[in-house]
Amino acid sequence: MNSVDTLLKTYFSRSTSELWLGELPVSSLAADFGTPLFVYDQGIVAQKLALLQHTLPPNFAISYSIKANPQRAFLQFFLSQGCGLEIASGGELYQALSAGCPPERIIFAGPGKREEELRYALENGIGEIHAESHQEITRIGAISRQLGRPARVAIRVNPSEAAQGGAMRMGGKAAPFGIDEECLESAVAKVLTEPGLIFCGLHLFTGTQILDHSVLLTQYRRGLEMARQIFQRFGQPLDTLDFGGGYGIPYFAHEQALDMAQLGQALRALFDEYKDEPALRNTHFMVEPGRFLVGEAGVYVTRISDIKISRGKKFVIVDGGMHHHLAASGNLGQTIKRNFPVAILNKLDQPTDTMVDVVGPLCTPLDGLARAIELPQPEIGDLIGVFLSGAYARTASPLGFLSHPTPPEVWLAHGQARLIRRRGTYQDYEHDLV
Ligand SMILES: Cc1ncc(COP(=O)(O)O)c(C=O)c1O
């Protein structure tokens, strides 16, 4: 598991008592930028990207999935490393383009793409659109003809046999994601016959937070088999085969990290089996991970503003909460609320001998950042940090709930801290009123 101790040893440095992030003490970051705040360490992102690149066969491209964290600093870092970007909305397309991403390095997946979003994508010469229904293929075809621009279309497949094991399975069962494998051939036939469309490949994405490498392998083998099937049926080799993202990171005590050494070895053996496959002669393989690349790089730093005891239970109230970090509160799709790794960042050397609930300032019992957790004796003013806050944290949270100012974001690189998003203000909530 990614316990606080493991995280400290793997990714962070510290003085005796205090966490250091990107070569800076957390107390100085909190003093300079205020709390609550999100801090991201570029060094950790670079480490994770290198690990993934080293694990995948050399002919794989990586497209960072923006939904995990759309902050421009992440996008620009991945672009500087030669990655592409995977988007799932017009808003994400805007962010990708304004971060300087060449349009041909963008792929667009996601159900229910609206006409205006597809038009925006095609007008900008996007690399690929991953069609999620027959209707969508028709719609892309119509827009492409109106604009007089050919569109590269891949089919996102919902495989008939589940690749089991992701914490949130998105394929292998009835789902709004992708086209059922049973209908794959008719979807490919439709793309091939629709004027204006270029059939470019397949995309499999069956779940997120996968920690068992054999689940990924099942999915990859299935993708390779589908490529063979399409070639046999249509004589069409695939230009691209996208295996999706889904690589997990351990959050909780019962979870083990994905075994990257085993995954790498098994992938090399798998691709060796298919090396002479005509369907894959000129295929570009890709993956589109989010969480694995950025999850561990973020820490959400809050400060204790009050401590109270209610009927024998100690509540530590901090200045941040569920509105900034829904996932840590256990309300982002978790069936069982478990604590993220949480620590008092200025008391790392003190014994964890006090059982508390860490809660935020919202008037709802949902607003807990850690429940029944043992921490050192807390005091008002201490800094409480939630680790593993780089992915699906700020971006997946109800930031407007109770109208607290939105939290700033700070990027750490080469020993420097840079404010990359300012703290919100009360006035922000009024700027779009009419
Ligand atoms: C189509 C698609 N691609 C990529 C991702 C990124 O997944 P992860 O962060 O688990 O790698 C998602 C997440 O839901 C997705 O829906």
Task: Walk me through the structure.
The structure is a single chain. This protein is α/β, with parallel strands linked by helices and 434 residues long. It has 2 domains: 4-41 and 296-425, Lyase, Ornithine Decarboxylase, Chain A, domain 1 (Beta Barrel), CATH 2.40.37; 110-287, TIM Barrel (Alpha-Beta Barrel), CATH 3.20.20. The protein has helices at residues 4-11, 26-33, 42-55, 72-80, 90-98, 115-123, 134-147, 184-193, 213-234, 260-273, 291-294, and strands at 13-14, 19-21, 24-25, 37-41, 60-65, 84-87, 106-108, 128-131, 151-158, 168-169, 179-180, 197-204, 207-208, 240-242, 284-287, 298-310, 313-318, 342-344, 354-359, 368-375, 383-386, 409-413, 416-421. Strand 6 (84-87), helix 5 (90-98) and strand 7 (106-108) form a beta-alpha-beta unit. Helix 6 (115-123) packs across helix 7 (134-147) and helix 9 (213-234) packs parallel to helix 10. The longest helix is centred in the middle third of the chain and has 22 residues, at 213-234. The mean pLDDT is 95.
